[in-house]
Design brief:
Length: about 210
Amino acid sequence: MILYYKPLLLEFISQLFRPEQHEVVGEVLLESKSLIQSYLVGLLLEAALVATLNSVGLLIIGVEYAILIGIIGALLNIIPYIGGLIAITIPMLLAIATDTPFDAVWVFILYMIVQFIDNNFFVPTIVARKVKVNALVSIIVVLIGGAFWGFSGMFLSIPLIAICKVIFDRVELLSPFGFLIGDNQPDLGNEIFDFKSHLKKIKRKIK
């Protein structure tokens, strides 16, 4: 329905803003569209790589339905930060039920290795570059999205906050919030506010 009523929605957005603002609004819409597309492509590529690693590792360990569980784990891993933790429990419980607790330990080690590779190589190079949202904000919005809309909210929270960042960066009054959401970490907060010099002045007054 959104695709069908796309002309209506675009016309509605154009009427919300003055004609001189249409160029900026158009840039925001195009950047948001490109961001979502690249984010989804990055997620699919990451999921394919994680599914491959999961499946191969589970096959080596000898867990039943290794390929299916590996794919399910990769799909759950799409949910940032939380999905990976949920994905570990399924093969561990299956290993305990069908094999031995020792196999569950191997499954845990396997998923920790896969998570390490994913978080340190796949996510930064494939996914994080697409949205440019820092980890703190990502965790917060994922938890909020999960509280309001469940798993779908967890999945949609990152692209939604990325779109908000695009809008905030374009609005002068909201640009500090865009900076807060982004991943450009300043050197030191002390240097920004010059806390050390203020502390020295306070000490001198006390003396």
